[in-house]
Amino acid sequence: MASRFQLGAATGQQLLDPWAQGISVMREVCSRWSQLDITQIGSLIAIAGTVPTAWRLLQRVSQEAYGCVRRFFLASVTIPGDDPLNRNVVQWILANRPRHCRSFTGRTDMGRAAHGDRAAALKKSQHAIQYLPHWSTRWLWYGGCLFVVTRNRADFSRGALSDPSNDGIGNEALTVSCFGWSAEPVKAFIHACREYAERQTQFFVIIYARDRYGLAWKPKARKPLRRLDTVHFDEGVKRELVSDIRNYLDPRTQKRYQSRSMPYRRGYLFYGPPGTGKSSLSVAIAGEFGLDLYEVKIPSVATDAELEQMFQEVPPRCIVLLEDIDAVWKDWSAGEKKNQTNGQDGQNNNNNNNNNSAPNCTLSGLLNVLDGVGSQEGRILIMTTNRPKQLDSALVRPGRVDMKVFLGNISQKSARDMFLRMFSPDLGCSADLDMEEVEKLADRFAAEIPEDTFTPSLLQGFFQLHLESPLNAVSSIGAWVKKELEKSSDKDFELIHDRKRS
Ligand SMILES: Nc1ncnc2c1ncn2[C@@H]1O[C@H](COP(=O)(O)OP(=O)(O)OP(=O)(O)O)[C@@H](O)[C@H]1O
Q: Mutate which of 238, 269, 279 to test ligand 1's pocket (most atoms within 8 Å of Cβ)?
């Protein structure tokens, strides 16, 4: 009633002015509902309007202040995104992350199939989802110092995480800083990260391959260490090979080579029929000597210059693996001949060839990087082939290949060793049998295997079907051998035999 009376008491001038009348009505309503004067609300809105500007100002000031603190009170080390150290630091941070992390990056893990869900695992396309803690700045204590690690966000948004070959660790430049005038604590922290990462990989062989753009070496897989005694071939040759590599890696050998102006490099050729353990031996050697394996796939190397760059970027102590080297230039020459019969210009084939199987780099390009002037010293080169006779003699001459190792079909002794490895009482699969009994079974088993006839991979296939019981394996081996020998009348099998004999 009071307000109606007040409205009614408005002056004639106000009644004529609709704007003033509207304001006074709003003022009445506001004061009735919120006890506030509308003119005060206007001030509040005006103040609220200044908040974003004030916030931006505050951010600028804090950034400037942080910049000043960094410049005058922080020592820092920046690690490029593609450097292996970058991974080491990120791995350490992920392992020591706060327990209650709430912000993650989710991505499809292209490396592993889905675990646990059987139905999903049957679908070939199903991959696990990987959740990695999402962070751009991380504060942490290490060795009594406060550190801040910042990630370069520009790199982060460049899509590295959507690259299937990227496992989500590393790739963004990192800046590691700590309070103080000296960078020594930062260096100590980075060193600790590297030691941590090395401890994590000591039971694995890390296999590196070129990234999908062919620009840098990236870890492609890590394989559990494989002991050398799990690769069965001539024991004498194995001993000779291991002692040759041990001798080569001895630091005194490097000095001896250098003092005599000899290039410090060593090359090996593993040859033999398919499935005799050439790749397995390469991985086992890498594990035995604690070396990483750098895989070169010649057909996907675009040019000789790229091949040269790849060899220059491998570390001094590592194994460079060139698999099935015979297949590479054989296909190339076949493609060349085909083009020539088609009346095309064979000269163009060296680098820009449309034939998918043809390498884009040349044999002379490879010969150059293997022992050319700019070639990296200290690495071990392993080439594998099924057809050593088809290799260019320049590729396997001493200096490029210093030792040739034949891996052939399995002997009775190796078959016995394989049996013992499969059914060792330590594995718990033959709980009721002691070692002596398993050895007797191994003798019976080996007696059934014809000497140098089956590839070790074929025999491994047999074991895969009888892993649950050594007794079963022994009782089934006779029939299996008979069946496989009958198959030997197949043309393919004869080819393997012929290759072995040649
Ligand atoms: N000598 C061997 N000792 C133990 N296992 C072997 C041996 N040879 C092959 N195998 C087994 O057979 C499988 C294939 O072996 P691997 O790939 O090393 O042969 P490879 O000679 O490199 O074949 P390819 O020439 O076709 O590449 C592996 O699982 C490996 O464990």
A: 279
